[in-house]
Design a protein that fits this description.
Shape: globular
Number of strands: 0
Structural class: mainly alpha
Distance between the termini: 58 Å
Largest sheet: none
Radius of gyration: 27 Å
C-alpha cells in the first residue's frame, strides 16, 4: 500500500493548480514593491539604519501573512467535505484519520509555503545594507515558518469541529487572538502582584513572543527564551493537529440528536432570536417597515457582538493606559491602534456583506425569493438596512474614540494653531484620513461583497476577493507609485542630490495624500461598478445554477469532409 496516499494525491492536485503558483508570484511582487517603496522613503537615514528598518517592516508584514494565510486556507478544508457528504466515503476505506488530516494539511499548505519561500529571499535584501546579522535572519525565518504552521493547524482544528465555513473561520480567528493575547494578559496581570521572572513567564506561550524578540531588543527575558517560545508554539501546533484527527473520527457521521442537545439548541435559539412574545413584536415592527428586513435582522446577537467587541477593546485600552501610562498615548501607538480597529471593522463588514447572498444562492433560497413579486431593489435595500442596523452606531462610537485620540496627541499649540504640514500633525492627519476611508470602504465592501457572493463557491473565497479589491488594491497602487517615484529619482542622478528628493515629513505627507486619493478613487469606482452590475445582471446571475444547460452541438473536425470524400471514392471503386 502507498505510504500516505491522501498526501500524495492532494499534493499532485495542488501542484497542478494555478493558484498555487499565482500566490507565490503575487507574494514576491508585493514584497519587492514594498522594499522599493521603503528604500525610497528611508533616503534620509544612514545605510545601516535603512537595513534594520527595512528588515523590521518586512518581518512585520510576513508575520501578519503567516498568522492569517494558513487559517484562510485550511478553515474550510474538512467542513466542506462534511457539507458535501464525501468525508464518510473516505472513512469507508482502510484510511486512518491521521492520513486524512496530513493529506489536507499538505494540500492546503502548499500555496502558503510557496508564498513564504518567495518572501524569504526578498527579506534577505536587508542583509546587504548592514545592521542585520545572519542569526537575526535565521531566527526570523524560523519564526515565520513556525507561525505559519500554527495558523494552518488552527484552521484544521476548527474545520474539524465546525460544519459551516464562516463559523470555522471566525472561530479560528478568535482562537488565534486568544492564543496571542491570553498569555500576555495573564503575564501582565501576574507581574503586577508577583515577581516578573516567575509569574510573567506565561508570555512565552504566546505565538507573538518570537516576533517581539525580533521587533524589540529590550525584553525582560534572556535571549534563550526565544527558543523556548518557539518550541512551545510548535508543540501547541502539533497538539492542535492531533486534536483535529481525534475530533474528525467522531464528527463526520450524521447521528440523531439527543434530547439534551435538542434542549440546548432550543435555549440557544431563544437566546439568539428572543422569547416568542418579543420575537412576534419585533417581527411585526420590521415587516411593517420592510418585508425583507426582518429576515436579515432577526438574529439579535449580531449587533450585540459588535458592541461586545468594542467593549473588550475599550476595556483593554483603559487597562493598558492604567498600567503603562502615557506610553499608550504616544502618536505611533495611537495611529497603530486606530488602523487596526478600522481594519477589523472593515473585515467584519465584508464578512456580513458576502455571507447572506452567498449562502442563499448556494442553498437555493435566493431563487425562491426571486419568484415573489418583490422587486430586486428590495433585496439590496433590506440587506443594507440590516448592515446599517448592525454597524452604524458602533462606527459612530469608533469615530468618537478617534476624535479623542486626535485630541490627546495634539501638540501644545492647540487645535487651531497647528499646521498640517508639521511633523507633529501628521499622525492626526493619518487618523482623519483613516476615518474617511472607513466610510468609503464600508460602502464599497457592501456592494462588492454582494456581487462577489453571487459567484464564489464559498463565503471565504468571496470575502478574500472582496477584501483584495477594496482594501489591497489601493495599496498596490501606492506601491507602484512609490516604485515610479524611486525610478525617477534614480534616473535624475540619485536619491540624495536630486531636486525631486523629499524630506521625511514631506514624503509622509505625500504618502498620506496619495493614500487618501487612491482609497477614495478605488472605493468609488468599485462601488459604482458593482452596483451597476447588480442592477443589470442580478436575476440572471442568481438563477444561473438552476438553468438547464442545453447540449452544445459538436463541430465536425476540419478533415471530416476529406474523410467523407475518401470513403465515397473507396465505395465507388
Amino acid at each position: 500500500m502507498t505510504f500516505l496516499p491522501i498526501v500524495e494525491r492532494e499534493l499532485r492536485i495542488a501542484s497542478r493548480r494555478n493558484g498555487t503558483y499565482r500566490l507565490r508570484l503575487i507574494s514576491a511582487l508585493i514584497c519587492l514593491g514594498v522594499t522599493a517603496w521603503r528604500l525610497v522613503s528611508l533616503d534620509q537615514l544612514a545605510q545601516s539604519r535603512q537595513g534594520h528598518s527595512l528588515f523590521l517592516l518586512m518581518v512585520t508584514l510576513a508575520f501578519i501573512y503567516c498568522l492569517f494565510a494558513g487559517l484562510a486556507l485550511t478553515a474550510d478544508c474538512l467542513s466542506q467535505e462534511k457539507r458535501d457528504g464525501t468525508l464518510g466515503l473516505l472513512f469507508l476505506t482502510d484510511l486512518k484519520s491521521h492520513e486524512l488530516i496530513l493529506g489536507k494539511l499538505a494540500a492546503n499548505s502548499l500555496g502558503a509555503i510557496y508564498g513564504l519561500l518567495a518572501i524569504l529571499p526578498v527579506l534577505a535584501i536587508a542583509l546587504t545594507f548592514g545592521g542585520v546579522t545572519g542569526s537575526e535572519y535565521f531566527r526570523a525565518a524560523i519564526t515565520l515558518g513556525n507561525t505559519l504552521f500554527f495558523s494552518l493547524t488552527t484552521g484544521l482544528l476548527l474545520s474539524a469541529i465546525c460544519r459551516h465555513e464562516r463559523k470555522a473561520f471566525v472561530g479560528g480567528f478568535f482562537l488565534i487572538f486568544l492564543s496571542i493575547a491570553g498569555p500576555i494578559l495573564v503575564s501582565l496581570f501576574a507581574a503586577s502582584y508577583f515577581q516578573f521572572d516567575t509569574a510573567g513567564a506565561a508570555v512565552l506561550f504566546s505565538p507573538i513572543y518570537p516576533f517581539l524578540c525580533l521587533r524589540f531588543n529590550t525584553l525582560p527575558f534572556p535571549p534563550s527564551y526565544f527558543w523556548w517560545s518557539v518550541a512551545s508554539t510548535h508543540l501547541v501546533s502539533w497538539g492542535f493537529l492531533f486534536l483535529a484527527g481525534q475530533i474528525q473520527q467522531s464528527t463526520w457521521q450524521d447521528r440523531p440528536k439527543s434530547s439534551r442537545r435538542i434542549n440546548w439548541q432550543a435555549l440557544w435559539q431563544s437566546f439568539l432570536f428572543g422569547p416568542p412574545t418579543r420575537r412576534r413584536s419585533f417581527r411585526t415592527r420590521l415587516l411593517n417597515h420592510h418585508p425583507m428586513l426582518w429576515f436579515n435582522s432577526r438574529n439579535r446577537l449580531k449587533p450585540a457582538t459588535v458592541w461586545f467587541f468594542l467593549f473588550c477593546m475599550g476595556s483593554l485600552w483603559i487597562w493598558d493606559c492604567s498600567q503603562l501610562g502615557s506610553f499608550m498615548w504616544e502618536a505611533d501607538h495611537c495611529v497603530l491602534a486606530v488602523l487596526l480597529l478600522h481594519a477589523i471593522l472593515k473585515v467584519w463588514i465584508g464578512v456580513e456583506a458576502c455571507a447572506r447572498f452567498a449562502d442563499d444562492h448556494r442553498s437555493g433560497a435566493l431563487e425562491l425569493l426571486l419568484t415573489t413579486p418583490l422587486p430586486q431593489s428590495e433585496f439590496f435595500e433590506a440587506h443594507f438596512l440590516a448592515l446599517r442596523r448592525q454597524f452604524l452606531l458602533p462606527i459612530v462610537a469608533v469615530f468618537a474614540f478617534d476624535l479623542l485620540v486626535m485630541y490627546q496627541i495634539l501638540p501644545a499649540k492647540g487645535f487651531w494653531n497647528v499646521s498640517w504640514l508639521e511633523s507633529q500633525s501628521l499622525p492626526r492627519l493619518a487618523i482623519g484620513i483613516s476615518m474617511v476611508l472607513l466610510v468609503v470602504d464600508s460602502f464599497a465592501l457592501c456592494w462588492v461583497g454582494v456581487w462577489e457572493g453571487l459567484f464564489a463557491r464559498s463565503t471565504n473565497r468571496a470575502l478574500g476577493v472582496t477584501l483584495a479589491k477594496v482594501m489591497a488594491l489601493p495599496w498596490l497602487g501606492l506601491i507602484a507609485l512609490g516604485i515610479l517615484y524611486g525610478s525617477v529619482l534614480i534616473l535624475s542622478g540619485g536619491l540624495r542630490g536630486s531636486p525631486l528628493a523629499l524630506t521625511a515629513d514631506r514624503f509622509t505627507l505625500a504618502f498620506l495624500i496619495s493614500w487618501l486619493g487612491a482609497g477614495v478613487l478605488a472605493g468609488c469606482l468599485l462601488q459604482k461598478r458593482s452596483r451597476h452590475a447588480l442592477e443589470q445582471q442580478f436575476r440572471s446571475v442568481a438563477s444561473e445554477r438552476f438553468e438547464a444547460t442545453e447540449p452544445q452541438p459538436t463541430q465536425p473536425p476540419k478533415h471530416a469532409a476529406a474523410l467523407a470524400l475518401a470513403d465515397e471514392r473507396v465505395a465507388y471503386r
